[in-house]
């Protein structure tokens, strides 16, 4: 993509993984960060706004604490992150300061994106930092996040950040040069893949995913998942080997390197992206076959008459899963009623609901505008 066009589009989100940051050969972590900062500052000079999602805190903290490998228990993991995060930002601050570039640390947990209000606050903060010419450096708040509110890997975090800031591109810098048809370290017949053109191609590649690395939490599985999230939002994704110092410059100059994932032609609207990826549902509604068909195939809202059972406790305006009778989730949406009210009206026709609740129009439990049908739904 040429520089003139990039300036008119959304920000560029760059994710750098632990496998890149720990360095190799003569390039240690400090040298990797120095080169990365120089590349990003060149983009800033061309008026391209950049957001950096960085791993590395746990790795740096673990090394500082003398651990031979990544901690397995949550408390030690959090302690390592707390020690390493300060070191990581010190390295970034010094590297960017050498170019006169201001940076900001932003630590996120999933809770910051689950609430619609907090999601908007996060979006507002990041957009304001970009307007001020600051490079946000984002990491998961590993020192405080609990399992149920963790992103789990920075590939997923970077894809969600890309949707929050309406990025034009997401660049995933890792320790392999591109995507392959199989794991090239185990299969000598693996073929390189330079471009993934559609969601169908992306889904077909799921079987090529590899497991997690020794220090990082994300393998190829999480990178494909990140590509799925971002491309569905209309964002181009590029996967490249970040161990070479000039790779980012080479990539952003429009040269073909690594693997490119092309965005969907019809991106999902922002609110529905939040429903799909940003939120953790509070309960589940099991629906009869007629309601499932009406929602999946005919673009209908969910009426009380189609609900067969209610699971979990939730308030009005909270997100719920919409499921087949066997419990398989096919959609999710914002419930207009709390779980106690939904329980009292489930299976009832609209006239009965209106009479029971003393108001008209109450039979609509989840409106189509507040609902998204999931992949495979």
The number of helical elements comes to 15
Q: Which range best describes the helical content: under 10%, 10-25%, 25-40%, 40-55%, 55-70% or over 70%?
A: 25-40%
Radius of gyration, rounded?
Answer: 23 Å
Mind describing the biggest β-sheet? 8 strands, mixed
Structure overview:
A hairpin with a 5-residue loop joins β14 (319-323) and β15 (329-334). The strands form 4 sheets. The chain has an 8-stranded mixed beta sheet with strand order 3-4-2-1-5-9-10-8, with helices on both faces. It has a 5-stranded mixed beta sheet with strand order 13-11-14-15-17, sandwiched between helices. α3 (29-45) packs across α5 and α8 packs parallel to α10. It has 15 helices and 17 strands. The chain starts with a helix and ends with a strand. The chain is 40% helix and 19% strand. It is elongated. By secondary structure, the protein is of the alpha/beta class.
Concise account of the structure shown:
The chain is an alpha/beta fold and 377 residues long.
Which properties best describe this structure?
377 residues; elongated; alpha/beta; 15 helices; five-stranded mixed β-sheet; eight-stranded mixed β-sheet; disordered N terminus
């Amino acid at each position: 993509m040429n520089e003139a066009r990039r300036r008119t589009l959304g920000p560029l989100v760059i994710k750098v993984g632990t496998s890149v940051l720990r360095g190799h050969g003569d390039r240690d972590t400090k040298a990797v960060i120095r080169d990365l900062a120089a590349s990003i500052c060149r983009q800033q000079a061309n008026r391209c706004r950049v957001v950096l999602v960085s791993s590395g805190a746990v790795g740096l903290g673990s090394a500082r604490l003398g651990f031979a490998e990544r901690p397995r228990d949550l408390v030690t993991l959090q302690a390592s992150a707390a020690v390493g995060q300060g070191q990581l930002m010190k390295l970034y601050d010094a590297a960017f300061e050498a170019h006169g570039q201001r940076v900001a640390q932003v630590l996120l947990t999933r809770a910051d994106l689950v609430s619609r209000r907090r999601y908007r606050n996060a979006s507002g903060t990041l957009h304001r930092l970009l307007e001020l010419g600051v490079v946000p450096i984002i990491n998961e708040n590993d020192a405080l996040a609990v399992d149920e509110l963790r992103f789990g890997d920075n590939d997923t975090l970077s894809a969600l950040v890309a949707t929050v800031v309406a990025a034009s591109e997401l660049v995933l810098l890792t320790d392999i040069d591109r995507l392959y048809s199989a794991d090239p370290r185990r299969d000598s017949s693996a073929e390189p893949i330079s471009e993934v053109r559609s969601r169908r191609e992306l889904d077909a590649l799921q079987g090529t995913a590899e497991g997690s690395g020794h220090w990082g939490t994300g393998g190829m599985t999480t990178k494909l998942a990140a590509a799925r999230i971002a491309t569905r939002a209309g964002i181009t994704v590029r996967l490249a080997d970040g161990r070479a110092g000039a790779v980012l410059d080479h990539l952003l100059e429009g040269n073909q390197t690594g693997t490119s994932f092309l965005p969907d032609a019809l991106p999902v609207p922002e609110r529905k992206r939040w429903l799909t990826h940003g939120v953790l549902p509070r309960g589940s509604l099991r629906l009869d076959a007629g309601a499932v068909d009406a929602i999946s195939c005919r673009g209908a809202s969910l009426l009380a008459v189609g609900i067969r059972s209610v699971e979990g406790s939730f308030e009005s305006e909270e997100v719920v899963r919409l499921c087949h009778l066997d419990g398989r989730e096919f959609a999710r949406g914002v419930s207009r009623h709390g779980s106690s009210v939904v329980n009292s009206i489930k299976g009832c026709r609209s006239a009965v609901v209106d009479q029971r609740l003393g108001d008209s129009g109450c039979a609509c439990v989840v409106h189509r505008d507040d609902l998204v049908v999931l992949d495979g739904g």
